Amino acid sequence: MTTQALLQVLASGLLMGLIYALIAVGLSLIFGLMDVVNFAHGEFLMTAMYVVFGLFLFTALDPVLFAPVAAAVLFCVGALAYLGIVRFAMRAKANQGMVQIFATFGLATLLQGAAQYFLTPDYRSIGNSWLGGKTLDLGGVFLPWPQMFGGLVSIAAFGGLYLLMSRTDFGKALEATREDQGAVALVGIDRNRVFALGWGLGAALVGLAGAVLAIFYYIHPQVGATFGLIAYVTVALGGFGSVFGALVAGVIVGLVEALTAAFLPPAMKSLGIFALYLGVVFIRPSGLFGKL
Amino acid sequence: MNRRELLLAGVSAAAAGSLAYPGTSRAQAPKEVTIGVIYPMSGASAQVGIDARNAFETALDIINNDHQLDLVAAKGAGLAALGGAKIRLVFADHQADPQKGRAEAERLITQEKVSAIIGCYQSSVSATVSAVTERYGVPFLCADSSSPSLQRRNMKFFFRPAAQDEMFSAAMFDFFDAQKKKGKKIDSVGLFFEDTIFGVDSSNTQRKLANDRGYKIAADVKYRTNSPSLTAEVQQLKSADPDVLMPSTYTTDAMLLVKTMAELGFKPKNLVAQASGFSEQVTYDAVGDKLKGAITRASFSLDLAAKRPFIKTVNDMFKARSTRDLNDNTSRQFMGLLLLAEAINRAGSLEGPKVRDALAATDIPGTSTIMPWARVKYGPDGQNPEASPVLLQYLGDKFVTIFPSEVAIADAIWPMNG
């Protein structure tokens, strides 16, 4: 393999990894906040992609502009999912963990089914956009603009998230609720409100990722499954609940996947990711940056 | 009678009615013939199932109602030999999962008492479904799965009217040989195939043909289906830069492959596809601008309507249901059901072995079908060896037949990216 080909693989892996990180961080955030694994995370991604696709069809504006809209819509979807479903699942008297799993899993099936029924299972894609199909040629290493945009959005989102968590009252409330759900009530923090906002924030982040993906990936009701599984591995690798861990793990997953596909038969490209995951689970079950 | 008793009485009356029905219906001539249809109706290839449903319902209209077309099973309403019995279809969803396909086949045979099953698009699912039908002695009409290995299991109840990938791939290599004779340069091929039975069987055939006929295999890439990215895979194809890229991929991967090739600045000199994803209109809607000059094998071509006007009639009927033209898949599904109905009618019976014998005795000239086939006459393995395939080239807005020369209406543009 030439140096150029290797650089290409690394660059592609890095860009894809940043997008994986952005997909995973919302999942990690929600888990860290309230120990609930959202099995509808991939479907949130799918919803965001359809939101962007729909706006693109109706307004004919460039899909890049819709990233904030998708994030806002998904914020509402996430908050509603908490207020309408998860809040009640958490009140289960017995087997609370199972109830939460099945509640979010049911939500996933519902979203998939609704998308297939109302939007048809046809494969959609956004044809013309500012970034679509354009690449930057760096001496034979090709960097597609849509993925570069995705990488930049991801880095910006992580930066913003860091500031939000460390500099604002909401971030402090989030952190406090994460530490001790019971005690925050004593100092006047409304636990339900923080949870709803946390779900909104987590969903908004995956909404951003969906907006980015919609520019260069095909859209259909099952698209969430493709990325959902990778998101769970990323979160487990980085450590459940760790925002920084999701970033590092996303990049690692992207690079390992690209390198595995380059050196082993590509049909085994997931082998590298899952081998790495298995290793982490054995050696450090809490994940790279997990505090559990 | 209180509410509870009323409910019980209602339920038992309903149960008695439904139990009594099959007993009485066996005695007289059947009013309807039930056929099971197993397709992916949900999951990543759900659109295939939805298009298939439209194709089957078009065929059902033609069989159950009187249509004056020179087409198999079109004239007269219903099945004449069974007292004009109508066909009823029972649809089942296999979600592209061979195990779900197996379970649905069992259910259709034991609960719905189907006389035959038709399916299943994914070769991996057709493999398990045909194993079940064989066991119960119910005919399986394989409409559109093209893996050659399906017919090599000594099955008595398996029938495939359309070509399989050996025949399709042989046509591709015949075409390469013909191009070479004209002085075009084709030395190497690049295989790119997905990791289920369809891609693997297709690539095995192509690998063997390439070796036998002296083409170098510059790239041989097996990839994981429905991957989030194909960058590393395309990188390998790009470094190898074969004279012809030969993908065997379903729709999602076909779209991602073409997009990724464009992103990495790889323009294959030629692309000759094992249909599937490359015969779906959505692929061309999404990335058609990058596929001008791409060639795909096919069982069907709308060009043929110039010679057989009823093809246009059928296409219009299908289009009214689905807003699309018939394509490689839907044409085979449509034709499959007509051929099955014709055989059941000839059998004059709903019993599996009799329908099976009627299928085995089928001998229909290609001109009574909508396909470019020479004939429909199944071999001892259930394969119709005279289902002549064609190659189509995409010209930016439509497909034209470019091979074989008997049915071609234009010369191939070769190379596609010079």
Automatic annotation (TrEMBL), chain A:
It comes from Bosea spartocytisi. The keyword Transport applies. The lineage of its organism: Bacteria, Pseudomonadati, Pseudomonadota, Alphaproteobacteria, Hyphomicrobiales. GO terms for biological process: amino acid transport. It is found in: Cell membrane. GO terms for cellular component: plasma membrane. The chain crosses the membrane at residues 6-32, 44-61, 67-89, 101-119, 145-164, 194-219, 231-264, 271-289. One of its GO terms (molecular function) is transmembrane transporter activity. Keywords: Amino-acid transport, Cell membrane, Membrane, Transmembrane, Transmembrane helix, Transport. It comes from the Bacteria. This is Branched-chain amino acid ABC transporter permease. InterPro entries: ABC_transp_permease (IPR001851), BCAA_transport_permease (IPR052157). Belongs to the binding-protein-dependent transport system permease family. LivHM subfamily. It is a multi-pass membrane protein.
UniProtKB/TrEMBL annotation, chain B:
Pfam families: Peripla_BP_6. Residues 32-383 form the Leucine-binding protein domain. The keyword Transcription does not apply. Keywords: Amino-acid transport, Signal, Transport. The keyword Cell membrane does not apply. InterPro entries: BCAA_transport, Leu-bd, Peripla_BP_I, TAT_signal. Belongs to the leucine-binding protein family. This is ABC transporter substrate-binding protein.
